[in-house]
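Regression test attached.
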Amino acid sequence: MNQPLHLRTALEIRAAVVSGETSASEIIKATIQRIETLNPKLGAFTDVTAPRAFEKARQIDAARARGEILGPLAGAPFAVKNLFDIAGLPTRAGSKINRERAPASADATLVARVEGAGAILVGALNMGEYAYDFTGENAHDGPSRNPHDVKHMSGGSSGGSGSAVAGGLAPIALGSDTNGSIRVPSSLCGIFGLKPTYGRLSRARTFPFVASFDHLGPFARSVADLAASYDAMQGPDAHDAALAARPLEPTSPGLDSGLSGLRIARLGGYFARGADSAAFEAVDRVANALGVNRAVELPDTERARAAAYLVTMVEGAALHADRLRERAGDFDPDVRDRLIAGAMLPGTWVVKAQKLRSWYRERAAELFREFDILLAPATPCRAPLIGQKTFVLDGREMLVRPNMGIFTQPISFIGLPVCAVPVWTEGVTLPIGVQVIGPPWREDLVLRVARALERDGIVKAPIGEAM
Amino acid sequence: MSKEFNADVLIDASLPLLGLELPAESRAVVKMHLETAERLSRLVRDFPLDDEAEPAPVYTA
């Protein structure tokens, strides 16, 4: 191979398998070797499914030998946050408690769909306990680390997903995003992440956190890989009650349509204060490249974020009520104490918060009558140090764990599709992300804009070399 | 934190209701989370909405 395997995108790997330049088996051999070498430094994987991966690779190579048409992701390795069911493994969801469960009897719907497109599952990825996390640290499995500087956080809660993709351990990973858990690791690790519209992708056979806000989606180092994996995951599923009845709407065919006709603005107000200058400079860079000269306000966003915060506390506490009574000592104390507090909050607050959600959704809908895309920071700063408990934002000292999501939380609150895109500053080791936000069901638009930025070199996702 | 809100009172009243025990070392942290939640809840509680406003627990974007 001319280019090292770990530098290739999933679609480049597929092309190499289809052309016969290499085989799926050779790809898996090299991928497993890279995981074994680098994972002790990154803490990205909690399980490596090597026998399964080699068997799947053998099937793909046999299919090619028979002259069959290979799937759109044929031969590309992928890995999933360990809250996705993988047949034969207990679904630990970052916890000590759940790893005592019986092994899953079947794969999560999205695992099956990505494999159905020819990709090859190579393992399960580290995450913050029960997804109540923005750091990528885990009290039981150790932290997942940032491949651009291993002293720094990967971001959470899909920290292993960010670490694996940015480290070149797999070109595609899947994660979940309740309040920002795809977009925060994408920002801190410098990769692309897609949080689709709420209700777009099936959550069947994944461990939940906050049913009102839980989303699943992909990470990748190229927008084309992100689109291809997202396209493979769409479709109906009777096993997720929140899944919307939507037609298949593939995004890959129109990915290179460019920016023509798109009306784009940046979010001001709440989204333009309370963060490091790096967060706003990243938005400036993207906005300038897109020719954006309008800032608009999504009103009462501080209230929306507060509402999301309360619903998360209470729904999370309700999910874990029995475990808090029976297994309190087996939780990560940082997670447990937030859940216990959530169990004590009045129900009236949550009902009001859910009413505010409907109200806020309407305000966003009004903006989207005038604009197709809105831009906002993804995180308030670059990756903090592992173990760092507080940071200073806009002159105020705050806890890292709940506040990395100040810009992502209001957007997932109303389920809008977002592509996080990575921005780099010359001479600075760590990246920071920007949210490209679209109206409901318009993943095609956020991916088109991300692709245009990538093509023009404004955003990119190089592999971390710090390991 | 508002003058009226006393997290310790809420903690002591809630624990038996919820069937939970609180390790001594966790009390200060739980209290901090409750005080944060109470502060944030005011942004929600104080927001005027019509009686007819629909909550969105089963949500379609």
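Expected vs. actual: identical. The longest helix of chain A spans residues 347-370.
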